[in-house]
Prior knowledge:
Layout: H1 7-26, E1 37-42, E2 47-52, E3 55-61, E4 70-72, E5 104-108, E6 133-141, E7 147-155, E8 161-174, E9 177-188, E10 192-194, E11 200-205, E12 218-221, E13 227-230, E14 241-244, E15 260-267, E16 270-278, E17 288-291, E18 296-300, H2 304-307, E19 316-318, E20 323-333, H3 339-342
Antiparallel strand pairs: 1-2, 2-3, 3-4, 5-11, 6-7, 7-8, 8-9, 9-20, 10-19, 11-18, 12-13, 14-15, 15-16, 16-20, 17-18
Amino acid sequence: MRKIVGLIFISTFLISCQNQTSKKESNSDNVMSETVIQIVPDDENQKVDIVIDGSLFTSYLYTDAYYKPVLYPLITANGKTLTRGFPVSPKGGERVDHPHHVGYWLNYGDVNGLDFWNHSDAIPLDKKEGYGTVFHSAYSIGNDQKSLLVKTEWKAPSGEILLEENTVFEFSVQGANRIIDRTTTLLAKTEISLKDNKEGFVAIRVTRALEHPSNKPEVFTDANGIPSEVKVLNNDGVTGNYLSANGLTGEEVWGTRAPWVALNGRVEDQAVAITIIDHPENLGYPTYWHARGYGLFAANPLGQEVFSEGAEVLNASISTGESLTFKYRIVISDQNMDATTIAPFEKF
Length: 348
């Protein structure tokens, strides 16, 4: 287990974010004042639990087993789990493809030519030189018990640190909705190239019930040419349907731009939704959506050449010592969401 280090380094950043959190909460009439949010460290198991009104919402998992820290699971106020169990806690009847799809995470498929997105135990040892790993470095909890600051290092196989990541997760509740506001700053420790790539960027792998019904097997190939078969399963109880801010639904959402996308469905007869909202200050806003019917729900502002079929090219970069910041809001709901119900969450 890594020791918790770097708290002095990140304390100023945390205080600033705490002040922002307090301001947001004081200005929001919809925040339920009686809601109790607790952030509970469990260093022995390399995780930090986020507990709302006595029940688990999610956990920050920082074990090296997943080649990046993740939030897992994502649970609604009514206790419905919206993330796939595999590979953390496999469940019967779910897909076991793409073992790098773990809970809720952020990384990318081409950082100085290295693939951080697809790295997992499924990659053969003789291929690992082409993959990068995101290592947890430190965490700190806000005094308000509503924010978690984490520091990670994006490393090449040689051990060279390419990016230092500082992320603040802010947790809140509005009505039937649990909210995660994420602010991620990527600091370049060397010259960084983020070549256009479809494998990214902020993502959730959802439970089987929120997949789109499918009647055929599919094979997907990652950026390094390694195939992964997505087999047909029993469609009973499979109810997912994407809805974008532009009015597109289902599989039509993939490869299009929009400021937000909601994934609606039902889990055990309870209406639920996951909504990912892009921030207007983000590079590439409104983002492209790497949203697949088989359960990958991702926003990718960096893969523009791929999604536009060559009409646009971004090829982002970060100079040594400079940084790039991204902000996203994730809304976990005990109801289906549409443009009307999402509107109050678009400003954050």
